[in-house]
Amino acid sequence: MPRTAAGTAAARPLAGGRTAAKRRAILAAAREVFVEAGYLGASMDAVAARAAVSKVTVYKHFADKHRLFVAAVTGAIEEAEERTRALVDRLAESVDVAADLRAFARQHVADVTQPHLIRMRRMIIAEATRFPELARAWHRAGPERAHATLAAQIERLTHRGLLRATDPLLAAQQLNYLILSVPVNEAMFTGRDAPYPRRQLQRYADEAVRVFMAAYGSPGARGAPGAGLPTGA
């Protein structure tokens, strides 16, 4: 029976949905294979087998291993950033900077210390000498982009008089490393794969914000040293 126009139109979303599902499966499989075998040891055959698709299908989505790796890395970072995007976006309009930064910091440290991201970070560092472009791809998609986004919000808060950051990008970089440095370095160098307890991560996040506000908070901002004290106190 000939397919009607309506039937053809109805079939397109289904086909698109299957294609997107295959792409997600390929990316998920690629992350596992790259982490387990390293960039050099990973193969498109192994990714295809793990994703339960043909190698031809993998190549239809990704022309070569390098493009697959970059997509896997940026996809993993984007998934983590998705949870904090709304928290970062509303910082510029904050009326309680310390509280909103704590909310961001708590989610950020929980996302970045996920075991699969720690394992991927180890793999990228191990391959950085032989494949520096892979490490650069991670840095561009992760820290570099995150710092720029956060710096834009810090600049807006400075213009509103709630922060005092003469160099918003440097302030963003410092906040990021105040939040992440202890748990990420520990996990990287000790081989820890187990998730951190939530309360421990929250302590790192809250203390990072306290130190940041001590350095950059305006006296009138909530959570800044001296906030709420009468003039001359």
Word description of this protein:
The protein contains 9 helices and no strands. The chain has helices spanning 5-41, 44-51, 55-61, 65-89, 97-112, 115-127, 132-159, 168-190, 198-216. With 233 residues, it is mainly alpha-helical. α1 packs across α2 and α5 (97-112) packs parallel to α8 (168-190). The protein is elongated and about 60 Å long. The model is unreliable at 1-15 and 228-233 (pLDDT under 50). It has 2 domains: 18-63, Homeodomain-like (Arc Repressor Mutant, subunit A, Orthogonal Bundle); 72-216, Orthogonal Bundle (Tetracycline Repressor, domain 2).
Low-confidence stretches: 1-15, 228-233
Domain tally: 2
Radius of gyration: 22 Å
CATH superfamily of the largest domain: Tetracycline Repressor, domain 2
Number of strands: 0
Strand residue content: under 5%
End-to-end distance: 86 Å
Helix content: over 70%
Overall outline: elongated
**What is the CATH topology of the largest domain?**
Tetracycline Repressor, domain 2
> Could you name the CATH class of the largest domain?
Mainly Alpha
| Oligomeric grouping of the chains | single chain
Largest sheet: none
Q: What average pLDDT do the residues reach?
A: 86
Give the topology, please.
Elements: H1 5-41, H2 44-51, H3 55-61, H4 65-89, H5 97-112, H6 115-127, H7 132-159, H8 168-190, H9 198-216
Helix pairs in contact: 1-2, 1-4, 1-6, 2-3, 4-5, 4-7, 5-8, 5-9, 6-7, 7-8, 8-9
